[in-house]
Every structure is written in structure tokens, then in C-alpha cells.
Amino acid sequence: MGITATDISQRIIDAVLAQKLAPGTRLGEQPLALLFDCSRTIVREALTRLAARGIVTVSARRGWYLIAPSREEAREAFEARRVIELGLLRGRRALDKPALTRLKKHLAQEKAALRGDDVGARSFLLGDFHVCLAECLGNSLLADTLRDYTARTTLIAMLYQSSHEAAQSCQEHVAIVAALERGDAAGAEA
User: Fold this and answer.
1) Are residues 75 and 56 located together in one domain of the fold?
2) Which of 27, 28, 31, 167 stands 20 to 30 A from 21 (CA)?
3) Can you give the CATH number for the domain in which 88 is found?
């Protein structure tokens, strides 16, 4: 069995998260069909799915492009993610030990990425924290939603996030996990 549209869309998202594709990159149907050894129809289906998720845009006679979010779109994406997370955190008690261990491991990876020079890994891990948090809080549906926001926010980080802002994000993540470990849902929301 060959590659599916779902496989292709996931591989494109993975490339975005790893910062192998920059904001505004053209995604040609024919080159992708050759890359994935499939028909343009399957590629078009994958790109259509990504467009529905807000990751790519299509322009008549120009083709498919990764989004290149404006500062206002960036603000909206981060605000939407924050609203989702507040809903997840509201009224939560302490997480169980395996969930806390997973989050702490993720934080250690974030800190290591901040010390290194791989901006792609740093951006991926900072964004993926939110997906990991949703999974640890037991909501796989919202984890999938946050995965889409993470693809968008990774593109945003490539355009706008400084190393200092990345370090601040990591510190916020540390504070969230510490609050959850104490059973302080209000502190995690702050």
C-alpha cells in the first residue's frame, strides 16, 4: 500500500515543526508527488486537509504555500492556545506521577535545546510542550487541536521569536509544571 494523504500531511507538519520548511514556502504538487512517489491527487488531498487546518493557503494560479502569519495572526494563535489551555487547567488537581515525569522530561529537553544552537529543535520543543500538557491532562482531542496550533506557532516563532523570548517561554512551562505538581490549578493558570 502506498502513502496516504494523511501520511503526507503529517510529514509536512513534522517538517514545519522541525523548521525544515519556512513560513511562506511554496508547496508544489508535482515536486511533492515525486518526493512521496504518489499521484498529485493524493498530494492535493493532503494540502487541502492542511488548508482546512490553517497550515497552508492556496492561491489560484499560484499554488499552495505554508502560512506566513502576521503579528496580528500570531497574537490570535497564541491567544487561542491560551484559552484552550485555561479550559484544560481549570479545576485540575495534581497530576499523577507518570504525567509529571513526562512533563519534567520534556522540560529537560527544552532547557537543553535552549543551551544549544538548533533553533528548530528549540521551537519544536517549546510548542510541543502544550501538546504534551494536553495529553498529560488526559484530553487527546484537544492535544490534536493544539498540535495544529503548534505548527502555526512554530512558523510564528521562526518569524518573530527571539532567544530571550524562547527562554521566557521555557520558564513559564517550568512554572506551570511546578504548580501542577503542587496541585495548584490556579497557579498553573496564571
Assistant:
1) no
2) 167
3) 1.20.120.530
CB atoms inside a 10 Å sphere around CB 96: 10
- For the entire predicted model, the pTM comes to 0.80
Tell whether 61 and 99 lie within a shared domain. no
- The three-point CA angle 44-20-142 to 5° equals 70
Q: Which pLDDT score is estimated for 93?
A: 65
- pLDDT bucket at 160, cuts 50 / 70 / 90: confident
pLDDT value for 149: 83
> Bridge-partner residues for 58, per DSSP?
64
Q: What angle do CA 83, 72, 177 make, to 5 degrees?
A: 35
Q: Say what the alpha-carbon torsion angle 137, 84, 47, 162 is, to the nearest 10 degrees.
A: -100
In this structure, what are the phi and psi dihedrals at residue 57, rounded to the nearest 5 degrees?
-125, 155
| Contact present, 154 and 19 (Cβ < 8 Å) | yes
For residue 148, give its domain range.
Answer: 71-189
Residue 39: CB partners within 8 Å, gap ≥ 6? Answer: 33
- What does the DSSP 8-state code read for residue 26? B
| Mean pLDDT, all residues of the chain | 90
Domain with 30 in it: what CATH number? Answer: 1.10.10.10
CA-closest candidate to residue 169, choices 117, 102, 124: 124
Beta bridge partners of 63: 59
